[in-house]
Fold:
Amino acid sequence: MKNTKKYTILLFSYTYLFSCGPTYDCDASAEDLKGDECLLIVHKIPSNTDDRFDYKGINPITKKDCDCNSSRSDRWWVKYKDHIEIGDTIIKKKGELIFSIHKKDTVMSFNFECDGKVYK
Structure:
């Protein structure tokens, strides 16, 4: 009888979590992501198994070593890992929601998107 009660409670908990649980606020996330900045000429690419955006290189303005680590923007920026190579310049300006990868002959720009809405 105890196990049946535990399973029933567990079942209701999962049902609540997946049907009425917390929702993702895209507008609030967009405002939060505006606060990050990344200006980097890529010198080191993290491993492919790493889900963090941990690129290292040189800031093109200050010419100092830097990285583009961000706990709030990692999941957005990491989507573009396959497009980034050593020598590329990554630009995400503070206050904007555009992530750009500047290559020798091309600029790839990506707006933040959430639930089908494109933020600029």
Notes: The beta strands are 38-44, 56-58, 65-67, 89-92, 98-102, 107-114, 117-119. The longest helix spans residues 2-20.
